[in-house]
From TrEMBL:
It comes from the Bacteria. GO terms for cellular component: membrane. This is Neutral zinc metallopeptidase. It is found in: Membrane. Keywords: Membrane, Transmembrane, Transmembrane helix. The chain crosses the membrane at residues 21-42. It is a single-pass membrane protein. Pfam families: Zn_peptidase.
Length: 288
């Protein structure tokens, strides 16, 4: 999605944390590495050990305010700023839906940083940490996906990832995590339903993003184009459990934690077309 260049996106509250910049270390290749990267895209698990020498050593973290993000033009030009600006739109949307909404903290990770949910880095991918009510995301992760797949991860695909993690925050503050705790893996497990609901919530925000405005009434974002929606749907398909498992040659639905590519696309589309109140994935039976 494209930000309106004159929109005021300052004051997002996003912070930058880590020992400094740094891309993922070289020496990793093949489908196994890709599968692990994708596995971690929307999880809070740290699978770095599966990649051997992947990533770098953690160093004492330093935290600073994100200061280079003032206008929509800044957000269009810089990935970190785009995520920070996106958080303003997402928070504005959810504050109109959830009574008493409190925004999560957004941490833009440089290199790596410890959290109470494990190490955050471009190896572990974006995740939401419920005890901290914080979203962690390293923008260089999108560069890695582009390098591995040869296709650019467009702005809306990036914001879809962010909105998905904010969907987990909604589940945290509304009690969904407590009501539907982890009950193992499988195509109808609570874990899969949780992830598909976060996809649906992301779609609902995308549909309403162009109506969220700054203090002067300027919309943060322009309405998404068909190509941008297609980009987001392709991102959803890429992180389907069946697609990831197919990279290694065997698809096992009983081990699914996030849902198939078809499910992830369909629930994103459900939110986009029908809104938040169509996102009760826990009320659906086996035809999830």
């Amino acid at each position: 999605m494209t930000f309106n260049s004159n929109a005021d996106v300052s004051g997002s509250g996003a912070k930058r944390r880590g020992p400094g910049g740094g891309a993922i270390a070289g020496g990793v290749g093949g489908l196994g590495a890709i599968a692990v990267i994708l596995l971690q895209l929307f999880t809070s698990g740290d699978f770095t050990s599966l990649l051997g020498g992947f990533g770098g050593q953690a160093a004492p973290s330093q935290e600073t305010e994100l200061t280079n993000c003032e206008t929509g033009a800044d957000a269009n030009a810089d990935d970190a700023c785009r995520l920070a600006a996106g958080s303003k739109s997402i928070n504005t949307f959810w504050s109109s839906v959830v009574q008493g909404y409190r925004p999560p903290q957004l941490i833009i990770v440089d290199g790596s940083t410890p959290t109470s949910c494990g190490t955050a880095s471009n190896a572990t991918g974006p995740f939401y940490c419920p005890p901290e009510e914080t979203v962690y995301i390293d923008p260089t992760f999108f560069d890695v996906l582009e390098q591995q797949f040869g296709d650019e991860t467009g702005p809306l695909a990036q914001l879809y990832v962010l909105a998905h993690e904010y969907g987990h925050h909604i589940q945290q503050i509304t009690g969904t995590f407590d009501q539907y705790p982890n009950n193992g893996t499988g195509p109808t497990s609570n874990g899969v339903r949780t992830e598909l609901q976060a996809d649906c919530f992301a779609g609902a925000w995308v549909a309403n993003a162009a109506q969220t405005t700054d203090a002067e009434g300027v919309p943060f974002l322009q309405a998404p184009t068909e190509d941008q929606i297609r980009d987001a749907l392709e991102a959803a398909a890429t992180v389907g459990d069946d697609h990831i498992q197919a990279q290694s040659g065997q698809v096992n639905p009983e081990s699914w934690t996030h849902g198939s590519s078809e499910q992830r696309q369909r629930w994103f589309a459900t939110g986009y077309k029908s809104g938040v109140y169509a996102c009760d994935t826990f009320a659906v039976g086996s035809n999830l």
